[in-house]
Amino acid sequence: MERLQKVIAHAGAASRRKAEELIIEGKVKVNGKVVKELGTKVSSSDRVEVNGIPLESEEKVYFLFYKPRGVISAVSDDKDRKVVTDYFPLIKQRIYPIGRLDYDTSGILLLTNDGDFANLLMHPRYEIDKTYVARLQGIPTKQSLRQLEKGVKLEDGVTAPAKTKVLSAEKQKQRSIVEITIHEGKNRQVRRMFEAVGHPVQKLKRERFAFLTLNGLNAGESRELTPHEVKQLRALAETGSH
Question: Domain RNA-binding S4: where (predicted)?
Answer without folding.
Answer: 2-65
